[in-house]
Amino acid sequence: MLELRLVQGSLLKKVLDAIKELVKDANFDCSTTGFSLQAMDSSHVALVSLLLRAEGFEHYRCDRNLSMGMNLDNMAKMLKCSGNDDIITIKADDGSDSVTFMFESPTQDKISDFEMKLMDIDSEHLGIPEAEYHAIIRMPSAEFAKICRDLASIGDTVVISVSKEGVKFSTRGDIGAANVVLRQNTTVDKPEEATIIEMNEPVSLTFALRYMNSFTKATPLSNIVTISLSSELPVVVEYKIAEMGYIRFYLAPKIEEDEDETKPEV
Questions:
Q1: Distance between CA 194 and CA 177 in Å, rounded?
Q2: Which backbone phi and psi does 203 adopt, to 5 degrees?
Q3: What domains can you pick out in the chain, each with its CATH number?
Q4: What CA–CA distance (Å, rounded) separates 24 from 4?
Q5: Hey, how many other C-beta atoms are within 10 angstroms of the C-beta on 153?
Q6: Residue 145 φ then ψ, to 5°
Q7: Alpha helix locations (H) across the chain?
Q8: I need a surface site. Which of 21, 100, 111, 125 has the fewest CB within 10 A?
Q9: Window from 26-30, 107-111, 233-237 with minimum mean pLDDT
Q10: What is the tens place of the pLDDT at every residue in 65-113?
Q11: Cβ distance 186 to 161 under 8 Å?
């Protein structure tokens, strides 16, 4: 038996909006510790990892580990039927081929429930190793989204370079080139507006902007984005989800002489 009750139901909508463009079908894994998802996009270039810890739910019951295959577009359609202030409860019986979403208005004067068929989805869990990164950037998520959006109007790729001077985002396309440089800035009044750069060694990597722009769909979840870079590893773009978890996107860098989409798998 699975029963999860989330008071901030709108969080779940934002999570779905953040990943449904990248991943169509995925398994949600429920265990005693939390509700998680790990899936690759259809071209096997990007990986998304989601965790919502059990303690972030008002009520969390998961009698045994359960994997629920869902079509994320269909799940998003179900969640669209809930109000932004609604409390969302997810229920599933052991061995059932469906999951129920229940939406309660905060005043309790309206309760709706929607049942969705589950799918059988083959998915292998990829071990994501803990790694030491050459550089870690923490910056306002809205700023990162704007930079990715602006650069995508000029080029297809972004070069992210971290040096003593700061972090530089640059692109080049048919109409010209663009560079955006952010310097470390920790003296702002609000911590969520700070740009913090931790650099062990300089790093410069190239990424496909269409994936970066897809990752920024998670901007409504957090004021801050953390970007971890290392020359031998996929970039990690992480958004914290309230106090209860995170959503992380992994993307392999583009190799300069290899302009097509065949990249090392994450």
A1: 27
A2: -145, 145
A3: 2-117 (3.70.10.10), 135-251 (3.70.10.10)
A4: 23
A5: 11
A6: -60, -40
A7: 9-19, 72-80, 141-152, 209-215
A8: 125
A9: 107-111
A10: 999 999 999 999 999 999 989 999 999 988 889 999 999 998 878 999 9
A11: no
Residue type for position 38: Q
Asked if 94 contacts 64 with a C-beta cutoff of 8 angstroms, the reply is yes
Would you call 153 helix, strand, or coil by DSSP? coil
**DSSP secondary structure code for residue 126 in this structure:** P
Q: Which amino acid, one-letter code, is at 187? A: T
Residue 23 C-beta-side C-alpha neighbours within 13 Å: 30
- C-alpha span between 29 and 41 (Å, rounded): 17
Q: Can you tell me the distance from the alpha carbon of 21 to that of 5, in angstroms, rounded to the nearest whole number?
A: 25
**Structure-token pair, residue 83:** 């109000």
- Supply angle C-alpha 217, 39, 113, rounded to 5: 70
**Is there a contact between 240 and 246 (Cβ–Cβ < 8 Å)?**
yes
